[in-house]
Write a structure and sequence with these properties.
The protein has 300 residues and is mostly helical. Helices cover 75% and strands 1% of the residues. It contains eleven helices and two strands.
Length: 300
């Protein structure tokens, strides 16, 4: 049964207020990363997450704007996307380093230990170089007024009856994201692979971001979503981390017993993930919308 339609009106200023809050988080974390000679992995993880959430909210805002102002959003979003990709690349090195130095990976036997140590040193150097380049790029974008540009588009004129339209956009997005999760879930269930599991992870994450935006705008929730998503995201995240490590292996390390043990570990996690979704379909979309309440205003 499809979810009931809602004509709930959400003032565009409410979404602008949320984007302004997300932008403040991004700008603050960017300052933290730039000011630190060696930004922590936690700050990079936070920045990566905040950039994704900001871009997601901006995509909704773009649909609210009138046609001509809408053209000003795309260049800003492309710059934010480039930032997110650069942060993600550095963070991938942090993930590999954390796993190589932590207790969860198979321990290399004596003849493989030197090769693993060499890999660890290379990844550490790559992470350090990546941080230096990232800080330069972040400073360049900050000085080029990227964040001021995003704030300016929050003042652009919206489409007629934008308040009613925003409520419909959120419902449309919920259905679209939900169907994409269901499609990715179905493909991963029928023919599991690392690429399909990674695609499922991305779609679940995007649905979760939408749930967060919708909840902050009008209090609506994707019923039964958080528990299902968090459990699956944990499994998929572990699988993705192992795939990242395996992608970093040098040729001489790839044929070692340690690498074979790592692949067995990856395959075991993939199989456990496959079993967890086998015979199970993603649950139908159920939206819970609260009674009408006074909307927050920009700057309140």
């Amino acid at each position: 049964m499809p979810p009931p339609s809602s004509t709930r009106r959400i003032p565009p200023g409410t979404l602008a207020h949320e984007i302004d809050r997300l932008l403040a988080d991004v700008a603050g974390t960017v300052d933290e990363v730039i000011d630190r000679p060696h930004p922590t992995s936690e700050s990079l993880h936070a920045l990566h997450r905040e950039l994704r959430r900001l871009r997601h909210a901006l995509a909704i805002w773009e649909r609210v704007l009138a046609a001509r102002p809408r053209e000003l959003v795309r260049p800003l979003d492309q710059r934010l996307k480039r930032l997110a990709r650069l942060v993600g690349k550095v963070r991938d090195r942090d993930v590999v380093l954390r796993l190589l130095e932590g207790p969860t990976l198979p321990r290399p036997v004596h003849q493989d230990a030197a090769l693993v140590a060499r890999l660890r040193a290379r990844v550490r150097d790559d992470a350090r170089t990546g941080r230096e380049l990232l800080r330069v790029f972040l400073r360049s974008e900050r000085d080029a007024h990227l964040f001021e540009g995003v704030r300016e588009i929050l003042e652009l004129p919206s489409r007629p009856r934008a308040g009613a339209r925003l409520g419909k956009i959120l419902e449309e997005e919920a259905r679209l994201r939900h169907e994409r999760v269901r499609a990715a879930h179905r493909k991963a269930r029928k023919r599991p692979s690392s690429s399909r599991f990674h695609r499922l992870r991305i779609q679940v994450r995007r649905l979760r971001h939408l749930s967060e935006v919708r909840s902050r705008l009008d209090g609506a929730q994707l019923k039964e979503f958080p528990t299902e998503a968090r459990r699956l995201q944990t499994r998929l995240g572990r699988l993705h981390d192992l795939d990242i490590v395996l992608a970093e292996l040098d040729d001489d390390l790839g044929s070692t017993e340690w690498a074979r043990a790592l692949r067995r570990e990856r395959n075991a996690v993939r199989e456990a993930t496959r079993r967890s979704i086998k015979g199970r379909r993603w649950p139908p979309l159920r939206l819970v919308t609260p009674p009408e309440r006074p909307a927050r205003r920009l700057g309140s």
